[in-house]
Design a protein that fits this description.
Order of helices and strands: HHEEEHEHEEEHEEEEHEEEHEHEH
Mean pLDDT: 87
Low-confidence stretches: none
Shape: flat
Strand order of the largest sheet: 4-1-3-12-15-16
Structural class: alpha+beta
Number of helices: 9
Radius of gyration: 25 Å
Number of strands: 16
Helix content: 25-40%
């Protein structure tokens, strides 16, 4: 104790840096850190019966996001040319954690449905034996604004006014796409029927995904979807390419590590995603040789791509549709 008293100032000087380090490493800010992540082979998610052995692979890319990053993390990001930091969004603060989780699951499930249907439809043009049976079940609510509390995540819209999807899919679709205020939406919520009247607070203040019922048993070849903890729709395009490649005779994997990002719908249209810059750098670091990028994200992707030291090692390919990606792979296959 006497030693401590005699050297109080010295001990204080020694402690100050440690206290500083503890503060900057532990204190969480109102910032969100977006970092590069990793690539993941999609072949284990959707299994196609009697799938062939491929020489290459199709991969999705994920990034890492930390909400309320620490002061130290923000300092590192500030000096990074790749990782970014933004203010934490309060977009979903009116939703429960369960709803937010369900929102991600709906996006993922919709991505799987879109991938399967788009892949089988594309493969049918190569092999008449390939087939898949599916039907539209309705429109599932994946998001609603804080003013549109009449909706819940997971609501399945099955009718509008006098038009029900079970009676006529086309009439339901046409009237739903042209909805107006005072129209009545018929919803299936937790196995109960609920009606929602569209008004100035909820009209168009919600987002939906088409919900399909796929007959897995009658598909040729048969398919199996395995469970996963991954949510979100951004792996749609690469999932689709992997399934397509297992449905046709030729091996479009080219013996390469193929990756990319983009949503997909049943018509093979590729949609935009976020964090494309981080995904470009992630793919490059993981040895990806072909990167498919949605057209709407291409400008940002190209900026990141042009910063790569040896960008010739990875081809950046802009696509608007699944057919664009298939055409690129087909040309590469035939050229070699």
């Amino acid at each position: 104790m006497k030693v401590i008293k005699k050297n109080k100032c010295l001990f204080c000087l020694i402690l100050i840096p440690y206290i500083y380090l503890i503060i900057i490493c532990c204190y969480r800010t109102n910032q969100s850190a977006l970092l590069t992540g990793d690539v993941e082979n999609v072949d284990s998610l959707i299994e196609v019966e009697n799938a062939k052995t491929t020489k290459g692979s199709f991969n999705t890319i994920y990034v890492v996001e930390f909400d309320h990053s620490t002061i130290f993390q923000n300092m590192l990001i500030k000096n990074s040319k790749i990782n970014t930091s933004t203010s934490v969004s309060d977009t979903y603060n009116y939703m429960s954690n369960g709803e937010i989780s369900l929102m991600g699951k709906i996006q993922h499930d919709s991505s799987i449905e879109g991938s399967l249907i788009a892949a089988y439809k594309a493969a049918m043009t190569y092999d008449s034996n390939v087939k898949i049976n599916y039907s539209l079940k309705g429109a599932i609510v994946s998001y609603y604004t804080k003013d549109a509390i009449d909706f819940k995540i997971g609501d399945l819209i099955i009718g509008i006014n006098d038009y029900y999807i079970s009676d006529d899919v086309d009439l339901f679709r046409d009237n739903f796409n042209n909805q107006q205020e005072n129209d009545v939406l018929h919803i299936l919520r937790n196995d109960e029927n609920v009606d929602v009247v569209l008004n100035e607070n909820n009209y168009r203040h919600y987002s939906i995904y088409a919900k399909y019922d796929i007959d897995y048993d009658s598909s040729v070849p048969k398919i199996k979807v395995n469970s996963t903890n991954v949510n979100g729709p951004s792996g749609g395009l690469l999932q689709t390419l992997d399934v397509f490649n297992n449905l046709v005779e030729a091996d479009y994997s080219l013996g390469k590590k193929i990756a990319g990002t983009g949503t997909i719908n049943i018509n093979g249209e590729v949609g935009g995603i976020g964090a494309v810059e981080q995904k470009i750098h992630t793919a490059y670091k993981r040895g990806v040789q072909v990167f498919f990028c949605p057209d709407v994200n291409y400008e940002d992707a190209l900026k990141a791509y042009n910063t790569l030291k040896h960008k010739e090692r990875m081809a950046l390919v802009k696509v608007e549709t699944l057919n664009d990606a298939i055409a690129y792979l087909k040309n590469e296959l035939e050229a070699n």
